[in-house]
Write a structure and sequence with these properties.
Blueprint (H helix, E strand, L loop, with lengths): L4 E3 L14 H7 L4 E5 L4 H10 L5 E5 L9 H6 L7 E4 L16 E6 L18 E6 L3 H9 L7 E5 L5 H14 L5 E4 L6 H10 L5 E4 L1
Parallel strand pairs: 1-2, 2-3, 4-5, 5-6, 6-7, 7-8, 8-9
Helix pairs in contact: 4-5, 5-6
Amino acid sequence: MRFTHLYIPPNFNHRFSTRTTGAKQHCFAGIEFLRCCTKIDNNILDNLIGICKSIKELELFISLNNSNYGIVRLIETQKKLISHFGITKPPTTKILSSFVNLKILELDDPSRNKWNYFENLSLPYLQILNCRNNVPINTIASLIENTSGLLIEIKIFIKTYSEVDNKRIIQAIHQNCPKLEYLELIILNNNILELEKLLNKCQHLNRLYIR
């Protein structure tokens, strides 16, 4: 029997043998989807790292306490991991720095958390950025500025921000996103001239949704 999906509950602590048998390796070597919590037991994590090399989708529940930093090693050993990451609160570890080839990032913050770590995060291969609710403007602008010009789609739905913040976002886009094709953004009246600059510089833009 071969398994492709594995769901590990947050408090699961079943003790695997430190030397997994060949049969177990055969069963779990084909895992393509893994869902677990970042406070996963060390024994379980070590076995996963040793056996699972072909995970395509990894769904993590970020624990506020006792996160296992070994999760980073699990990510690094995967050869087929899909480059898509979504999160609703800042992680307690610098886990995103392990996603060197991340292409899609979705940030949603219903609870007004602090995202300071993201302001120094470099994601050179990022192509799609989707931000909603209370993700800080400085965080979004820094993410855009720290890419390498490959962004083709940006969706930003932040309901309340100032004209200064709005201007910074628009400037970050037209200064760093020459290949942009789709943009969804709130435009405040006093920043129409910045929007004009964006339209002039982003020559590949073919879909524009202004809120």
